[in-house]
Amino acid sequence: MPGLPLSGIRVIDLTWIIAGPTATRYLADFGADVIKVEHEQAVDPIRLGRPIVGDSPTLNNSGFFNYVNRNKRSILLNVRHPFGMDLLKRLIAVSDVVIENFSAGTLASWELDYPEMRQLNERIIYCSISGFGHTGRDRDHTTWGPTAQALGGLTLTSGLPGLTPAGWGYSFMDHTAGYSAAIAILMALHHRHRTGEGQHIDMSQVEAATVLNGPAVLDRTVNGRSWRREGLPPGNRAWEPAVAPHNTYPCAGEDRWIAVAVTNDAEWEALVRAMGEPAWSRDARFGSNADRRANQDALDEHIAAWTAERDDYDLMALLQAAGVRAAVCQKPGDRVESDPQFAARGWWQTLPHPDMGDTTHDGVAPRLSSTPGVLQRAAPRIGEHTREILSEALDLSEAEIGEFAEAGVFM
Amino acid sequence: MSGPVAGLRVVEIADELGQYAGKLLADMGADVVKIEPPEGSEARRVGPFVNDEPGPNRSLNFWYHNTNKRSAVLDLEGSESDRETARALLARADVFLEALPPGRAAALGLGYDTLAAANPRLIHCALTPFGQDGPWAHYRVTDLVALAAGGPMNMNGYDPEDAPGAPPIHGKGDQAYNTGAHFAAMGILTALLGRDAGGEGQYIDCSMHEALSSATEVGLPHWLYTKTNIIRQTGRHAATVRTEPWIHRARDGKDVLVFNIGRSNESWGKLKRWMQSHGFGANFDEERFDDPMNRMAARGTPEAKEIFAEVSSFVGTLDAEEVYRGSQACGLPWGTVRSPDEAVDDPHLHDRGHFVATTGEGLDGEALMPGAPYVLTASPWELRRPAPKLGEHTEEVLAELRGLTPE
After folding, report:
1. What's this model's pTM, rounded to 2 decimal places?
2. What are the residue ranges spanned by the domains of chain B?
3. pLDDT value at position A2?
4. Cα–Cα–Cα angle for B405, B406, B407, nearest 5°?
5. With a cut of 0.85, is the ipTM above it?
6. How far apart are CA B371 and CA B343, in angstroms?
7. Cβ of B189 and A137 within 8 Å?
8. How many degrees, rounded to 5, is the angle at CA A37 between CA A367 and CA A409?
9. Which residues of B touch A207 (CB under 8 A)?
10. Interchain CB distance below 8 Å, B333 and A144
């Protein structure tokens, strides 16, 4: 779409599952022409991912796929066919970015590594997202999001003391690797603008995870103290800064929780007043932050008794009005149906989908004042844009496209 | 070679919220001047500290998140002349990254309208917990509170048999702040490319709440399409139905992530031979295990149950790293559940030069910390200087403003 900051940037998107498609979703939201290259013999598994609208998966009715791949176009290209590979190379020659999240070595086995791409297009920015990067002794190891979370240290930091880690409950690192890749691509585009130079971005999903816990690494390399020790992870209590109270507390209803964090004495006083200054709150055991830290079991028990019969959103409003940092642990349904902030800011948007009807989507974050991101179209049906892309980008005639179709290139 | 955003002038006012976005730019070449109050950024009071002794220059949290920046102390709350200095800095800056509460920058005379009048090319990114407007705009958070509201936290937790009545769990490491910072950096760079393409600067309203809600994978689609809230499970994906456990205890007491068993016939064959060579999985040669659909988790098949039980026993006979490396040789994406610092012991990461040495007050010599989240081969990540001491560059920055070179 003209006028968007990334309009005119053409991205050949060879990614699948979540990490790569998350990066290209961001780029597409801001106007990049993201061309998802697909092959019927190896479809993106998310095209079959639940939730499915209808009785069985058709490749075009996954709500999950629609959520991750809005604003993109789809071309069917059988890259195992020599004509298909040739068309892919011709597309790369007229594009700005190629992105893939295969295992290291896959594109090299297609004879399409970075030196080859550079032959086709000197200015190309090639972003590979693999588990461990394209160099180093373990480059052939594979990851999914949870693997990167485990090896990078995120899984272990989430849990109740003494129990198996709770982990992250989803592929947080697919999102985060995607955002890191988007940042790297945007930086490389700026670098190219300044210098004319393209480059290879070698992303490792594990490294995108290890950078998220720098202070814990320094605690070991400076202070000789590992995070693997008694009392850690501390559940929902604080690690650093070491404050209390800092926890989740039950509210009225089934599986309803409020998170409350008090970061200094003034906020503690505010919490005490909000609770109606109960006698227990003046106990010397809770006088200073150090006292509250030392007596968290008793402290948390008192606060939980106060929250347990109360409505979580009412509590959030009461506490925030008093100057206490608190929020409902929102479920997906809460965010869509009850969150007044999302409602007031018009966060949820609708896009029509040919197979699924009107579908709801996140808005675009962050909000750029003069060139805001736009939801233009739902996720593409498989191969939906094959002909228009070849006609636009490569100037192929209907007759030429027809010949390729007969040769079995678009499948 | 220099970083891709070398020469970019950034002015940052940020503490725990926002400092990582500034780091992402600084580490790739930007000149980030961090304006701090006389008592220093709040983040300087966040532990752990060198030898557990607090002090403005001893916070490891601050060391990590402020590499490659310069620190200038300006009393924005108390001094009009310091506010004037900040405006002068912003008049020649490309980017203003601030994480002040909504309205605060304008109250200090640093609102976008004022700044843009003097410098229309300025990209002003305001990162806040909930955005600039709306009923929660002035609500305050910590990392815990932000992850609760934004949704990621509600997906992490326990099976009832592991921890009855357990709440959603807060994963540590300031991941709400990190996600907010990723979105701020993406927004700043997007606006920068818009400027490269001939546009002017602009204002960015970056809500951490919107960023976090966008980062919850399949959580929202299940609600949006089937009005189902997925359920939390111990150490594995929240789902609509209970699935087989993924975390298993190895011989050395460390846990291993064990999943995606038998998706392909090739990896299943290798896993079977590996286990059988250790005396496990004798019955896996039975024909019923040949069908990938029988082996697939979360379908309730007896084969999947048997496989997971046998794998669990097998894992208990090896050390965690042996399980990790053995599984990868089979093409399986298992991994040791490492403590964050244990990545330092991984030779592969050293092959890639992932860790870099830094230093600071109270440390003799240097210590390793993670380096780049990405390798840009033509314009690499670089540690040019460690995190600044409080006010270390005040004079230098003021001298530059006066058009003088510091002595």
Report:
1. 0.98
2. 9-215+372-401, 235-342
3. 64
4. 115
5. yes
6. 12
7. no
8. 155
9. 349, 352, 354, 370, 372-374
10. yes
- Is A360 in Cβ contact with B224 (below 8 Å)? yes
Q: Could you tell me which CATH number the domain at A257-328 has?
A: 3.30.1540.10
What are the catalytic residues of A?
A: 174
pLDDT band at residue B407 using 50, 70 and 90 as cut-offs: very low
pLDDT in tens, A194-232: 999 999 999 999 999 999 999 999 999 999 999 999 999
Per the document, the length of chain A is: 411
Token couple for B225? 């399409």
How many angstroms separate the CA of residue A399 from the nearest CA in chain B?
36
Domain B235-342 has CATH 3.30.1540.10: yes
Binary contact (A199, B5; C-beta < 8 A): no
The number of residues in chain B equals: 407
Beta bridge partners of A361: A349
Tell me the C-alpha distance between B42 and B47, whole Å. 11
For residues A202 and A208, give the distance between their C-alpha atoms in angstroms, rounded to a whole number.
11
Q: What pLDDT shows up at residue B298?
A: 75
Which of these, B326, B325, B312, lies nearest to B270 by C-alpha position? B326
Cβ-contact A327, B141 below 8 angstroms: yes
Distance of CA A248 to the CA centre of its chain: 25
Residues of chain A found within 8 Å of residue B156, distances taken between Cβ atoms: 158, 166-169
If you compute the radius of gyration of chain A from its CA atoms, what whole number of angstroms results? Answer: 25
Encode pLDDT of B295-345 as tens digits.
Answer: 987 778 899 999 999 999 999 999 999 999 999 999 999 999 999 999 999
**pLDDT of B404:** 62
Classify B9-215+372-401 by CATH class.
Answer: alpha beta
B160-202 per-position pLDDT tens digit: 999 999 999 999 999 999 999 999 999 999 999 999 999 999 9
Could you tell me which of A233, A298, A289 has the C-alpha nearest to residue A261? A289
Neighbouring residues of B322: CB distance < 8 A, sequence distance ≥ 6: B250
Q: Which residue of B has its CA nearest to A240?
A: B47
